Amino acid sequence: MLRRQKNCRHETHPLENEVPREGHYLAALAQCFLVNMRAIMKQENPKRILLGITGGIAAYKAAELVRLLAKQGYAVQVAMTQAATQFITPTTLQALSGHPVLTDQWDAAANGMAHIESGRAADAIVIAPATADFLAKLAHGLADDLLSTLCLARDCPLLVAPAMNTQMWANPATQRNLAQLAADGVSILGPASGELACGETGMGRMLEATELAAGIVAHFQPKLLAGVNLLMTAGPTYEAIDAVRGITNRSSGKMGYAIAQAAREMGATVTLVSGPVALTAPVGVERIPVETALEMADAVNRRAARADIFIGVAAVADYRPATPNEQKIKKSDAPLSVALIPNPDILASIASLPNAPFCVGFAAESEKLHEYAQAKRRAKRLPLLAANLAQTAIGADDNELILFDDDGEHLLPRADKLTLARVLLAHLARLYRKGRLA
Ligand code: CTP
Fold first, then answer.
1. How far is CA 17 from the centre of its chain?
2. Are residues 254 and 196 in the same domain?
3. Pairing mode, if any, of strands 319-321 and 340-342?
4. Which band of pLDDT confidence, cut at 50, 70 and 90, is reported for residue 109?
5. Domain annotation covers residue 8
């Protein structure tokens, strides 16, 4: 029997009755997944970021970046150039990061060695905003203040988020410096094109804090899906009965969106065909919004040939009204029947293509999870299927899954959906590579 987790909220494990009790091998597999999950769960492996802020208007966005990183479990130490302190105060950043801000190369508390000490403690240095001047310093190995010295003395990855006026960005000197930094292995986040503080419009706007946070988190993920085209569905579908009413379900899209985000972080090119949800698309993911099952099927079919992997996470309506009313149906005392006809099974049809991508299905069941999930995997001929109990999964921020594949079953105990998505994708990546080698 699977061992219950210490932090499990349930008195009895809800999946326990669904798993054969005689399978000792199952407990071993579950333990193996637990080890992977612990490694993946950010709380148990906090990353330390040294955030360097240089003197640009975009410095105000650094405050939000500190907040977002701290929220995701990162320990952030801020270091600022003197110019940066003209744009945003160290007090603000100290309050948000919970640590005194480094501004002085000759800080007595650090024994005059702040540049070495802080660099040693960091898992990555992020410069946001990085001005044209600071990029030039980095490219040429200058070390004439605390932050540039920290960068030169580092033994960890360096990420920079350029922010400057369009002309400065386009200047050949800046482009030369960026090319040199890229050649030196520095990761360059952005910039974006848009309205700039100087009133001009063009390249040079620093990425938003959410985009930077996503880039930093992605930096730490193993690139298990680099070069892979991943197509997926998420969310519910909506099947109109008349002009104002329809059939849908309670899927929030959260699991699918977490998978899209995790896959992007692992290096995949992700196309997310999404039913109507109240979520923003993860950074770097191409979202194709659809409403009905037929629209979803069409969007998927048109992209399937280019996909290496297809994951069906959407809760697709199995039926749609045969003849939806264009106008609102008026109420009367007579009973009303709505004739329903079946929708195509998107996952089954993609899995049966001659050159089918590696297909992964989801099964949301309200009972007999083990039996129904196995049957679904067989019927749709899927190498991998993730099953969950609909009652505990729909709309929730966390979930628990059982993965079914040719080797058997693997329990992923309750965790937030992004953690589950990372474990699921790490497993999928292993099976996918194994399949390609076979
Ligand atoms: N699926 C699909 N197209 C459909 C129905 C389901 O692509 N018309 C996919 C889902 O995205 C999921 C898997 O098939 O990956 C299983 O979906 P689920 O709703 O659990 O099962 P169904 O196949 O619809 O069967 P049932 O409703 O009888 O449980």
1. 32
2. no
3. antiparallel
4. low
5. no
